[in-house]
Design a protein that fits this description.
4 copies of one chain form a homotetramer. Chain A has 342 residues and is an alpha+beta fold. Chain A has 9 helices and 18 strands. Chain A has helices spanning 29-41, 47-51, 95-102, 108-114, 118-135, 161-172, 202-211, 303-326, 331-339, and strands spanning 2-6, 13-19, 23-26, 56-60, 62-63, 66-68, 72-77, 139-147, 150-154, 179-186, 216-221, 239-242, 245-248, 256-257, 260-261, 266-272, 282-284, 290-292. Chain A has a 5-stranded antiparallel sheet. In chain A, strands 1-2-7-4 form a 4-stranded antiparallel sheet. In chain A, strands 3-6-5 form a 3-stranded antiparallel sheet. In chain A, β1 and β2 form a beta hairpin. β11 of chain A pairs antiparallel with β11 of chain B, so a sheet runs across the interface.
């Protein structure tokens, strides 16, 4: 399984091609669109997302509602949301680094592709991955657990009152907030990923995929940073034999040992930086002159929307690992093979 | 650039093949061995490492002290350090998951390859990557910043007294400790990695490589988890034009924006879990019977040794990104091309 | 550089995403369309191609007529050319093997993706690769050299009278013809591809790409099959020093030695089988009952159209090899680096 | 599955690491050595091969005679066969192109890695692939079918008298010969490879691997070049339903349709150029001065030895395709999954 995405923030459309999926996977377009809607309708988003509701179009690879095994092309048309041009390098954005790398005259050209807008198509592809995982009884979820100083656990469409208040306060002062997201994978059997080569370790693969989400600046597995102060004897996930199978008394490790899933739930925590789009910050323009940033985009925090993206990214990465392990030309084969695992 | 490693903890030797390096890179074998020695001689390691000093042998790809462009094979012979067999599943190790995956009868067979012993050969390959980076003026460093409750910053061979005391206390009680490591990359110009496709983002690539180090459970870039509570206006890395070039007033972001190096130092923080090898933990044996873990290996904390491994892993991952961007058949070409960057 | 294509023969559109091209490459849409037109307007094609003229649309990755470094999405809309359903397994087509592999009930479902229709989008992407190569002074050409028993060398739009006669005769009898194509690469400097690892050999890479074109059944380099009877002394490409550089007195080897371009023209010869779409052949239907094939598609020979596809496929494969060697974020860098080669 | 090889012709040893094989595959070292011996003991080889009998050593990845799933390292020590230095560019060898690419001062340095010596380790890895395929009932064979003007079909150790005579005559005159090899794969079920993306087509993959064998200059599938003159109606592989399954009345296509195995035997034909190592050819030396080639190596024809290499290369490429399709952590799983195919 492999995939590529294309498309700019203010281009005609976003496109994704995913290749290597089996035939016979039922594709539910309304599930994709519902996931896209969740990504857009969360609290604290600026005006753009409300104006241009995302709708996925399947352009190939599906016949009679099921995949054929051929590459699946998915598109999301961009609405007419006005131009994205600006002439200053925004701190925390790709603007400067992209201009250096690609020789852009204009600070905004890199932003067209670096924009979180790209995550819409990744979400659509991730939604397909979730459907495949769902057929195996595997679910991937992501919930917001912190927005600014408000700590809670809530799904992206139902932020706690504390979180909303944080967002409102920051938004009124023209500021932005970071936060945390918990990504959980349930129903994954033991034996996925591998210790035999470092680049096949499930923790490394998932961490790489999750860190590649815009604004994510930390990725933790299980106890994560809290392992630093713990004693080994306090955080051992003791094995016991219970009702005919081996289980754990705890899951500090987050479901991965030696780079392989151990049958417990997988648990990742992501930290997001505050969205760096803030007006009035001192910076330089494309001519190297000091200036202030203007307002480019209006979200206060990426946490709720990034929950959806993290769910998608984790699903895609996991799906790839599972298909490497199971192979399979048809969904039926894959289900049969997964059923015999563990 | 690509590489594979092979070899078991108690096998004949560890082997690595690295392919895709340019010709004309000077290989300093004593630098490799000195890095291997650092990995072994750190405080808090058990008896094995002192008995079997690691020495790298270059078996191909180098002529007259310089690379030829052909694959470089590196080997490290294993000393005769006794067998590694045991019959219980150790919590926090690959034992159980590997047995399920590969159908092993014996809990110890997975450990042969999952053992941190493999990181010796990754260190040797990483040392070669460091030599290439060094030719471009890029350095990669890793220092211990926390062991248990002792917080300090020190290189792996010179732990602070506090850290040593933590290790001694834990060791005497048969317990183990986690901690933190800071990985820094200096001298890297702006423009490496890319925002144009998620899997080319430098932060994702480095995070994936670092999370794939045994015992690493969290990877942070820049401020990392501390971004969660920060306001956007507080953590913006303001751009200014100074002495003819654009620089930053701060580096909260850790040197990467939009997945591309921005010319500032790259800063990652890793959290390690306590080494899970503890005697006397309740567990089950290969027959599913309750038992206690025996003592398998003697280190108290992985922090100092993992500094060396993290330095190697980061160097390898970065080297791959740089060679993707620069191409190059000869070291001379690569230096010339890097010189023109930025 | 990497790319994926998607789309079915009778689907909405064909799509391709190419990722990893530099910024600053001028994209000439009319050149793409002209190449698509050549692929369609050749002698001996059936009715479909004339009804639905292919037009490429660039949907991302290009701004102001130049690439930005972001993934380029290209689409070709399918005209309404009627359905492609049939219920018999055609010899020489993917029908049976695809049905077994993907569990299709219908013999025509595999054909939707295996159809030479897919080569239209590969041609569009190849046209972009040709533009990049053109900037380096490298040209890739493909000419028909045999159709049935008519042997000549002619470009795909100007078949010789003998060839046309062969096509007319075969067409009238409802039969089809194979033939040969010569693929030539000029202007490529010495040093591309590598002997150091088998999968980096330029001959293997090009042969793999060219054999993956529908109907191609043989790939030869230089003298190809005629090497079998030759003596070593007769086919040595003698080196001489002339006007300050080393050149050859002959080019039996086809421009590649040890898997590396040697500065001479690259020469491949492809053999195509007759198009297997013939009506009235005995076969079986999806129920396993004996039946006869019906008419599905109307071309007599693939030779002229496949010239265009071979040109595209060779250009894409070569472009990938060159970018691996040169790296490069901008077209300017790539030109500078290529200029210093050899 | 992936693998890397390393080692020079006159270096210490050849090394290969193969990663991604399942656990539980029985490794028969004497089969590897017997394949290595066949590669060496064929008719028409020079003195080197007789002096240094190749013996494989398994250095990792195997326990108790079976694979563990960990990377398998294989080594073949080089005997002391004298130096390989020379100072002239040999036509038909990598010497000139490698010197240009890697900046070598010496014409012989490229030859150290480009030498057919490397195929010994590829043979050893291929032998392991053959064992895996053998467990699935798949065999890969290669026989010489032409040496110079002598046409026959014989296994590499039992050349026909005509072939030997050709070799003797050429050898006495200091000349060399090319020839042809037939590679056959039996027992492969329908459904391997895929039409859905060009780079997954089995014919392209095998052709790429076979063309990457030193001296191979043409690769044909099925009728190959003879398709050029054939009519479609003459070469259709008619499907019939017989004894409960669909079979073919002929196999002109060589067992692959639309890039997928169709259940018939796979048949490839390779053409090898004469070994280009001939003394007394005019050429230039490293200073650009005209000179004559000296004698570097003594084989008259590569055909018999290349049979073994082709068998190995085809087995490795096929094994990779099969494992992509079947996945599988253990040999037992793979056998079960293959059994359910078709």
């Amino acid at each position: 399984m492999r995939y590529l995405t294309a498309g700019e923030s203010h281009g005609e459309e976003l496109l994704g091609i995913i290749e290597g999926l089996p035939s016979g996977l039922e594709i539910n377009l309304s599930k994709i669109n519902s996931m896209l809607a969740t990504r857009q309708q969360v609290y604290g988003r600026g005006s753009r997302s409300s104006l241009c509701p995302d709708t996925a179009e399947i352009r190939s690879g599906v016949y009679g509602g099921k995949t054929t095994g051929a590459p699946i092309a998915v598109a999301i048309k961009n609405g007419s949301c006005g131009a994205g041009e600006f002439d200053f390098f925004r701190p925390g954005h790709v603007d400067y680094a992209a201009a250096v790398k690609y020789g852009y005259d204009s600070p905004w050209l890199g932003a067209e592709r670096a924009s979180a807008r790209e995550t819409a198509i990744r979400t659509a592809l991730g939604s397909i991955a979730l459907m495949l995982l769902g057929q195996l009884g595997i679910t991937v979820n992501a919930t917001g657990t912190q927005v600014g100083n408000a700590v809670d656990e809530c799904n992206p469409l139902e932020l706690s009152e504390d979180m909303k208040r944080e967002i409102d306060v920051a938004g009124r002062s023209g500021d932005t907030l970071g936060g945390k997201i918990k990504v959980s994978i349930s129903g994954l059997k033991a034996g996925f990923g591998s210790h035999v080569h470092f680049d096949r370790r499930l923790d490394g693969i998932l961490a790489g995929a999750l860190m590649a989400i815009p604004s994510v600046k930390a990725v933790e597995v299980g106890l994560g940073v809290d392992f630093a102060c713990a004693k080994g004897s306090e955080v051992a996930d003791i094995l016991i034999y219970q009702n005919g199978k081996i289980v754990r008394k705890s899951n500090f490790g987050g479901g991965i040992e030696g780079g392989i899933s151990n049958g417990e739930s997988i648990a990742f925590t992501l930290t997001l930086k505050p969205i760096p789009s803030i007006a009035g910050l001192p910076t330089v323009d494309s001519g190297g002159n000091a200036c202030l940033t203007g307002k480019v985009r209006g979200d206060v925090t990426a946490v709720p929307a990034a929950c959806v993206v993290a769910q998608a990214a984790a699903a895609l990465a996991l799906c790839e690992v599972i298909l490497d392990c199971l192979g399979g030309d048809t969904m039926e084969e894959i289900k049969d093979r997964y059923g015999k695992k563990g």
